[in-house]
Write a structure and sequence with these properties.
This protein is mainly alpha-helical and 187 residues long. The protein has 2 domains: 73 residues, Winged helix-like DNA-binding domain superfamily/Winged helix DNA-binding domain (Arc Repressor Mutant, subunit A, Orthogonal Bundle), CATH 1.10.10.10; 67 residues. It is 58% helix and 10% strand. It has a 3-stranded antiparallel sheet. Helix 1 packs parallel to helix 6. The longest helix has 29 residues.
Length: 187
């Protein structure tokens, strides 16, 4: 998800690595802090793959700053990753939310809807947060108050997500879909 975040933020606008790290931390840092030891090797791999380039821009009273920009190959890779996410990027909540943060980069509402439909399909499959011998545990059958609390919260979050997905899919698939489907260019 770090690669997706790097490409996604740089598709919105060029920025230096420190600023990029701050944006990524704001998005996913509370769950997975972004260290320089992870960010800079990822940036270097993306540069070597031709997905990013780096240019020096003069500083006001400091040495030149290195500004990162996404290349056309990087934009194509971002759109591929967003339009054709791995199964784990659909089923893992944190990964899906990172994907969702940049899905507006895909300008075709039908392609956006296909990704959202995959998530909705996953959420509507029979499953359980806890299982006993492979059988999902129902909230009312869980005796431990804290595990029951986890089930209550997970169930409520899943209902809210399904409702949002269904509403958004209806909007995307209608002929008069409201909302801006163009990539954002604002900082």
């Amino acid at each position: 998800m770090l690669t997706l975040s790097i490409l996604g933020f740089l598709a919105e606008r060029p920025m230096h690595a420190y600023e990029l790290r701050r944006h990524i931390s704001d998005l996913i840092g509370h769950n997975r802090p972004v260290s320089d030891g992870a960010l800079y090797p990822a940036i270097n791999r993306l540069r070597q793959a031709g997905h990013l380039d780096r240019q020096a821009e003069p500083g006001d009273s400091a040495p030149p700053r290195q500004i990162l920009r996404i290349t056309s190959a990087g934009r194509a890779e971002l759109l591929r990753r967003l339009s054709e996410p791995k199964e784990s990027e659909i089923t893992d909540g944190g990964s899906f939310f990172t994907l969702l943060a940049f899905l507006s980069q895909v300008t075709d509402p039908a392609r956006q809807a296909a990704v959202l439909q995959r998530r909705l399909d996953f959420l509507t499959r029979p499953a359980g947060f806890f299982t006993r011998s492979g059988t999902p545990v129902r909230i009312k059958d869980e005796e431990d108050r804290y595990r029951r609390g986890m089930l209550v919260m997970a169930s409520a979050a899943q209902r809210a997500e399904r409702a949002w997905l269904e509403e958004t899919l209806d909007e995307l698939l209608s002929t008069d879909a409201p909302g801006d489907q163009r990539p954002s260019t604002a900082p």
